[in-house]
Write a structure and sequence with these properties.
407 residues, 4-stranded antiparallel sheet, 13 helices, elongated
Length: 407
């Protein structure tokens, strides 16, 4: 059975063409797509989950505030999405299409709403004037207005789309998986050889009778969990399935070879996303160092680009220069264990580097509404070099005086 599908590509003359695809080819393509999809979306979800845990901190006159802009990015970008859903869609579009567009979808009662565009017409780049985006679509709504560059937040993941490169590797590597699957099916399947005597094969209409016998008796025997195969005079059946070992036995294959090939796809997909492979394949060893590399190489660059785009579009140079800006804090991505880090907390506060409220916020705890919680403390064990060296100078000077008195 075969049917026609409209090819998503067009021929050289620009016209649509149809291609004939068999059901077997379609099912094989579906299997390949499922593995490819699984690897891709696991990596995307890891990045989206991590960025969803980031805190968008807002500042005015270099002092942190939590007002409307803070609520917009951390809780409700629009009426239909919370911030986590919004960021998941943003990261998905960014990795699917190598770029994403955030537009303002209106303001009601002085409250602005932001949304991630589903589609838009790619503008021509002119270095001396702003880009203009037309045909912007959010959901089912297509805007007739033209969005200028200053009106949108435009993010681009890479200079070249890495997804096309990964897809090419999928297609070449899946051939190995397909071969391993066929080998597994052969080694674990039923394969029988039938020896037919000349007397039996010389009868009139033997081929038709033999085919009917195969369908009526041997096929149910092979497919059944328990059955009896009658053996007639002139017929001899021999099982030739599986791979012979050196001792003459039969080796049956398992799925570990196939699983190893699939894990290879996970590994090179993770590398394409700049994610340490150990975080994707589920292993526990080395995850502490892997998490640091994940944040440094994958998460922080995306946060930096989004932060820069927000500051330059939603603020301005004058406001930034006056200390008004937004900062994306990724320190809360890794789970913070209070009891495990008790000694580190004491050092952070006791060295005067951070206040008690700074540490509580980093630990995802509520701040203390007391003035002393925002003050900096320092233990008596820490002092300036000149103060630490003074007792030695005094002691040395005192000994010299005693010597002079004695003389």
């Amino acid at each position: 059975m075969a049917f026609h599908l409209f090819d998503i590509f067009r021929s050289k003359d620009g016209k649509q063409k149809t291609v004939e695809v068999s059901c077997k080819e379609l099912f094989e393509a579906a299997q390949e797509f499922q593995i490819r999809n699984l690897c891709f979306w696991i990596c995307v979800d890891m990045i989206a989950n991590a960025i969803g845990r980031c805190e968008f901190r807002t500042f005015r006159n270099n002092q942190e505030i939590q007002e409307r802009e803070y609520y917009l990015w951390n809780f409700e970008p629009n009426k239909n999405q919370n911030s986590t859903m919004f960021l998941h869609k943003l990261i998905s579009k960014l990795y699917e299409e190598n770029e994403a567009l955030i537009v303002s979808v209106g303001s009601r009662n002085g409250v602005e709403s932001l949304a991630v565009a589903d589609d838009w017409q790619e503008p021509q780049y002119w270095p001396d004037q702003q880009n203009q985006y037309t045909g912007v679509q959010v959901g089912e709504l297509i805007y007739n207005k033209t969005f200028r560059e200053k009106d949108v937040l435009h993010l681009k993941l890479n200079h070249c789309n890495i997804k096309t490169v990964i897809d090419g590797m999928y297609r070449s590597y899946y051939q190995l998986i397909h071969t391993a699957m066929k080998n597994y099916q052969w080694e674990n399947g039923q394969h029988w050889k039938v020896h037919v005597a000349q007397l039996a094969s010389g009868e009139d209409g033997w081929a038709e009778k033999f085919q009917k016998m195969i369908e009526a008796q041997i096929k149910p025997f092979l497919e059944s969990n328990g059955a009896v195969l009658p053996e007639f005079d002139g017929y001899e059946y021999t099982n030739v399935g599986g791979t012979r070992t050196s001792t003459g036995g039969t080796r049956t294959s398992d799925t570990r070879d196939i699983r190893a090939l699939v894990e290879d796809i996970f590994d090179f997909t993770a590398r394409g996303f700049l994610i340490p492979a150990v975080l994707v394949n589920g292993k526990v060893e080395g995850t502490a160092d892997a998490n640091k590399r994940f944040l440094t190489n994958c998460i922080d660059p995306i946060c930096d680009q989004l932060q820069e785009e927000i500051v330059r579009k939603r603020y301005s140079y004058e406001e930034w220069n006056a200390g008004n800006f937004l900062r994306i804090d990724s320190s809360s991505i890794i789970h913070f264990d209070l009891f495990e880090n008790a000694a580190n907390v004491e050092k952070l506060v006791g060295s005067g580097a951070y206040t008690i409220n700074d540490v509580r916020r980093a630990a995802n705890q509520s701040t203390i509404a007391e003035p002393w919680a925002d003050e900096h403390f320092m233990t008596l064990n820490i002092s300036q070099m000149s103060q630490s060296a003074r007792p030695l100078d005094v002691q040395k000077g005192g000994n010299d005086d005693e010597k002079n008195v004695g003389n």
